[in-house]
Amino acid sequence: MMQTRAGSSRSDALSHAYIQNPPIRCNIPETRGLFYDDGNKLLLSPTADQVLSWKVGVPSQNNPPNSDLTGEGPVLSIRYSLDQKAIAIQRSIHEVEFRNRETGLTFSRKCKQDSERILGFFWTDCPTCDIVLVKTSGIELLLYDPEQNSLHVVETKKLSVNWYVYTHESRMLLLASGMQCTVFSGYQFSAAAGIVRLPKFEMSMTKSEANSKPVLSSDDVHIVTVYGRIYCLQFDRVGMHLNVYRFYRDAVVEQGSIPAYSIRVAISTVDNVILSHQLDAKVVMLYDLFLDSLNPISAPLPLLLKGSSGSNSRSISEVSDSISSAYEGMIYSDNWNFLVPDLICDVENGLVWKICLDVEAISASSSDIPSILQFLQCRRSDPAMIKALCLAITRTLILERRPISVIARAMDVLVASYSNFLRSGSTPPATQNTGNDQSTAGSGVASEHAITGTATKSIIGDSSSGMSMHSPSTSDDEMNPEESEKLGDKSLESSVSQLLASHDTSVATSPDEMYLFVFALVEDEMSGDPAYLVSVIVEFLRSASREKLKMNPDIYLMMNQLLARSNQHANIALFVSNKIIEPSKEVAMQLVDFGQQNYKIRKLGMDMLRQLSLHHDYVSVLLQDGYYLEALRCARKYKVITVQPALFLEAAMASNNALHLAAVMRFFSDFAPSFKTTLDYGRYQQVLSELS
Predict the structure, then answer these.
(1) 131 CB contacts (<8 Å, ≥6 apart)?
(2) Which of 267, 189, 280, 206 is nearest to 232 (CA)?
(3) Cβ atoms of residues 257 and 247 within 8 Å
(4) What is the pLDDT of residue 496?
(5) Are strands 42-46 and 35-37 parallel, antiparallel or unpaired?
(6) Which of 124, 549, 602, 627 sits in a 20 to 30 Å window from 537, CA-based?
């Protein structure tokens, strides 16, 4: 197994995930512990009589924390209400204190000291209750009344509870009971559907020695939300694996298991990817459940500490360097607490780190290019960077002349992803003008979703094909919360990335972008093998045709140019006849131009102009070829008045045929009465007299 110094940010240190430096620093003297309010994404650190708070995602180096008075007393747990008008503080195992932030008034909710204990609480955005109090005797659903400074009991659910797990991201509460803590009752508190109760279920535990029954710990149960689906990962310490469960409205379905290589395991989710931290082995494994696969997407590698590319101020740089030095060899410290979904809290040092994926490293470590493209198309964290990476991978795939079968799978992935992007109702991103006027056609907030379907529907969904692409969003049957090398020219990569970043973009790649940033960029380098590039484009068009995507005519112009360059005129005719090359004015005029050396190709272009009812252009081409009488008949039939009469008259005069010139003069005199008042009429009338 590769060993890497934990604090290293060297370019040769390989990792697929890292913690972002600098961290949020919460190590203020006289604070007593560090808590995470996942409902409001706040880091909370109480002092003797107040609580300091930092908003996660906001740099803390130059932003002092906010503070609120809390009064004196112990703090076992603390959370703000979701509207942040109140603070709830658990003072003991029997009491929770509520403080109105506006008035400063307080009151307490206590339990029976002789028969029950308070295990914890959380605020909800459920319409029927504001706060849930979890006790050993069950749960209390309460409404908070700030005006009366009191709580009202909505409902009490009696059951024996050993411990519980809850995440605001999923709005899911799991209550453990039984001798081994393997029997679970589940509730989801949804803003859309209210309170939904799951059927009671039992988690699997591997049997150990004869007289020993392992007890499941709350540290071994992890609720994760990926692609809008809710899963539970349960660590079986005896069997050394993680059991994966998926929640539906009427069932909890076991999906299989993933191996563990450490007696301590922690779970994070980053951009819909599950990270399984093997704490003793000091490595992390990545899983993507999009296609219902439980295979890791990368080899086990260390978690690195990397500096932020934006940290260029001297003060932040100095802080980062000191922290990096202090953290040398301390990755996966015993003091680490993993916060849902992607944070790590170092309680002893008062630091909170954000976990990030290195998608470029993940891409570079895989030899299955279509699969890595599919993985990248599901990411949402940095769309412009990921799109630029996908485009670079695709260009490299072509420049390396990979087998067409591999190219075809890659094109299927990219095209299906864009098609799904359009079906979702999204607006295609704008691209550079390519010389014509043609255009081409995450998880949400958990509280906006609810359990709406049943497990009787297909668990796999439509992902029966290994390369099929579907929306990484929830379907109605689910529990709903809300080695490819880089192209060598770095300046090219930078310019492409900047261009993509200038638009409100998604990771999905449009046909315009495929033309601009893939085919147009590789054309010169593929000049020695135009047939291969044509085959690549044909595979792209095949995929696009299946998804009924509109193509930019420039891609057809490129195909024709490549075929003409290698004198494959027969293939041009074949592609046009079979509608592989779609008709357009641009294509038709290109075929007419090619037809100067090949009459059949020119006729294809002329036929395409007629097919598209481009009568002006058709008449103009006939005149260029000297067929002025046929052009005249076409102009009469389709009432083409946009071609200048002088062009017809010049062609007729050049033939030195008085009858033809007279016919043209008569046509325009009848067809356009104002013609007789023009200078052309007088001039050509004189020419006609001379010929006669």
Answers:
(1) 81, 88, 121, 122, 123, 124, 142, 143, 144, 151
(2) 267
(3) no
(4) 54
(5) antiparallel
(6) 602
| DSSP codes of every residue in 552-608 | PHHHHHHHHHHHHHTT-HHHHHHHHHTTSS---HHHHHHHHHHTTT-HHHHHHHHHH
pLDDT at res. 59? 61
Give residue 35's pLDDT. Answer: 93
Whether the upstream peptide bond of residue 146 has omega within 30° of 0, thus cis, is no
Residues 249, 478: Cα–Cα separation, whole Å: 7
Of 289, 504, 268, 475, whose CA–CA distance to 375 is shortest? Answer: 289
3-state helix, strand, coil in the chain (%, to 5): 30, 25, 45
Torsion angle of the four alpha carbons 662, 666, 671, 675, in this order, in degrees rounded to the nearest 10: 80
CA atoms within 13 A on the CB side of 47: 15
* Residue 151 identity (one-letter amino acid): L
Residues 6 or more apart in contact with residue 650 via CB below 8 angstroms: none
* Residue 428: predicted pLDDT: 64
Q: To 10 degrees, the CA torsion angle through 159, 160, 163, 164?
A: -10
Distance CA 531, CA 522 (A): 13
The reported pLDDT for the residue numbered 498 is 55
CA atoms 153, 157, 162, 168: torsion sign: negative
Beta strands per DSSP E along 131-170: 131-135, 138-145, 150-158, 163-167
Classify residue 122 as exposed, middle or buried by CB count within 10 Å of its CB (0-12, 13-18, 19+): buried
The C-alpha atoms of residue 243 and residue 109 are separated, in whole angstroms, by 37
Q: What is residue 475's predicted lDDT score, i.e. its pLDDT?
A: 45
- CA pseudo-torsion sign 660, 661, 662, 664: positive
- Supply the pLDDT for residue 203: 96
Give tens-digit pLDDT for 249-287: 889 999 999 999 999 999 999 999 999 999 999 999 999
Q: Which residue has the tokens 């004189």?
A: 686
Phi and psi torsions of 76, nearest 5°: -90, -30
Beta strands in 468-536 (DSSP E): none
DSSP code at position 327: T
Tell which phi-psi region holds residue 171, choosing left (phi > 0), alpha (psi between -120 and 50) or beta: left
The Cα 444–Cα 228 span in angstroms is 7
Q: How far apart, in whole angstroms, are the C-alpha atoms of residue 545 and residue 580?
A: 9
**In whole angstroms, what is the distance from residue 55 CA to residue 276 CA?**
26
- The answer for residues whose C-beta is within 8 angstroms of residue 489's C-beta and 6 or more apart is none
d(CA 110, CA 318): 48
Amino acid present at 592: V
Residue spans of the chain under pLDDT 50? 1-12, 309-320, 431-453, 455-476, 481-491, 502
CA distances from 63 to 60, 82, 147 (A): 5, 22, 33
